[in-house]
Amino acid sequence: MKKYVLDLEVRSVERINEKYSLLRLTHEESLPEMEPGQFVEVRVDGSQSTFLRRPISINFVDREANELWLLVAAIGDGTRHIVSVKQGDTLNCVLPLGRGFTMPQKSSDKVLLVGGGVGVAPLLYMGAEMKRHGIEPTFLLGARKAADLLEMDLFNKYGRVCVTTEDGSEGEKGFVTNHSVLGEHFDMIATCGPKPMMVNVAKYAAKVGVECEASLENMMACGVGACLCCVEKTTEGNLCVCKEGPVFNIKKLLWHL
Q1: Residue 5, class by beta-carbon neighbours within 10 Å (0-12 exposed, 13-18 middle, 19+ buried)?
Q2: Euclidean distance between CA atoms 57 and 176, whole angstroms
C-alpha cells in the first residue's frame, strides 16, 4: 500500500477527559485508503525534547467528511504537544503504515474485538468496517473505572458492547478475560491494549482454538522498519512491528505461549 506524507488540517480537538483527546484531521484532497489496525506517524513540532515522530493508531476514517480521527493519550512531551493543537493548525503525518487486522469474510462469522485503554482506538474503525460489510461485531472493552471508558456511544453504533471495569463501576467487575461473554462461541478474536491484557486474551483464544490477532504497541519511531527499535521475537525470527505488524496472528508470537 502506497505511503503518503501529508500536512493534515486540524478540523477539531475534543478533550474526552484529563488524559485522552480526539483529533479530527482533514486534507484538501481525498484521504488515502486506510485499513483498520494501521497507524500514522505524527511529526511533533515545537518540542525541545521530542525529535522522533509519534505512532498513533487510526481510530476512525469518515469518508463522507474526509476526516481521519486520532485518539491520543497525552502521556509524554510528544503526545502532549500533539493534543495541544488548535482548530486550523496543521499536523504532518506519514500514512498509512503497517499491517492491519484481517477482515472476516463471511457475514455469519462471530467476531469479538477486545480492547483496553487507548488500545480501543483501532477497534472502532475495525467495527465500523465490519458492519459496512454486513458483519456485526461484539466489542469487549475494559477499563479501570467507568470514567476511563472511551467512545462508548460510537462503539454502540456498530455492534454489541460488553464492558468490564476493575472497580465494578460499569459492566462486569474484573478484567476482560473474566467477562461472561467469553462463554459464547466466536470464530475470530482481535485485540489491542496493554500487553498483559493481550497475553491473557491470546492464551484464552489458543485454549479454545479460536483464530486471534493482536495489535502490538512496541515503540515505533520510524514506521518503515529502518531503526529496528520495535523488533519483536517471533516464530519467524526478529520482525519489525511497524512493518510486519503492528497486527500479528498470535501463532507467530512467543509471549503468549
Answers
A1: exposed
A2: 21
Indicate the pLDDT class of residue 257, thresholds 50, 70 and 90: low
CA 82, CA 165: separation in Å to the nearest integer? 28
* 99/231 Cα distance (integer angstroms): 15
The answer to whether 209 and 202 are in contact (CB under 8 A) is: no
Distance CA 35, CA 133 (A): 14
Contact 212, 202 (CB under 8 A): yes
Largest CA distance in the chain: 52
Q: Lowest mean pLDDT: which of 196-205, 209-218, 224-233?
A: 224-233
How many CB atoms are closer than 10 A to CB 9?
15
pTM (predicted TM-score): 0.96
What are the CA-CA distances from residue 132 to residues 30, 141, 157, 158 (Å)?
20, 21, 12, 9
Assign 52 a pLDDT band (cuts: 50, 70, 90).
confident
Averaged pLDDT of the chain: 94
Report, in this order, helix, strand and coil percent for the chain, each rounded to 5.
Answer: 25, 35, 40
Nearest to 218 by CA among 98, 74, 58, 60: 98
For cell 470514567, what's the residue?
147
- 36 pLDDT exceeds 80? yes
Has residue 51 got a pLDDT over 90? Answer: no
